[in-house]
Structures are given as structure tokens and as C-alpha cells.
Design a protein that fits this description.
mainly alpha, 2 helices, 0% strand
């Protein structure tokens, strides 16, 4: 029983890590293009804005990751 609990935890950790690693660049790219298209900034003229967008994308992904983690664990508890 102890062994299966540990393997479940490892599996969910790896799955969440994979989702996190995949979603960070996607959200960053979306926000980066929004930055260029909507606000008409080039990456050369406004490095600070891009850095802020990177931080915002990181925060958004962090919350998505936490929500996913909570949902997974509540589903585990229901079993």
C-alpha cells in the first residue's frame, strides 16, 4: 500500500512537471505576441515590458499548475 502511494505521488509530480514545462513557453509566446500586436512594441525597444510579461505568464501558469494539482489530489481522495 505504501509503495503504490509513493508511485502515485511520483506519477502526479512528473505529470504536473510536464504540464508546467509545456505551458510556460506557450503562455509566454501568447503574451509576447499580444505585447507586440496589441501594444505595438518591438522586443528591442521594450525589454522591460517583455520581462514583465514573462513574470505575468509565469504567475498565470503557476496558478493553473496549482489548480490542476488540487483537482488531481481531490480526485485521488475520492477514489
Amino acid at each position: 500500500m505504501q509503495m503504490s502511494d509513493q508511485s502515485d505521488k511520483d506519477y502526479y509530480f512528473l505529470e504536473n512537471l510536464r504540464i508546467f514545462v509545456v505551458s510556460v513557453p506557450i503562455v509566454f509566446i501568447i503574451l509576447f505576441y499580444l505585447n507586440i500586436m496589441v501594444f505595438n512594441l518591438s522586443d528591442k525597444s521594450n525589454v522591460g515590458a517583455n520581462f514583465v510579461y514573462f513574470i505575468i505568464s509565469g504567475i498565470i501558469v503557476y496558478y493553473i499548475y496549482n489548480l490542476n494539482f488540487v483537482l488531481r489530489h481531490t480526485r485521488l481522495l475520492q477514489k
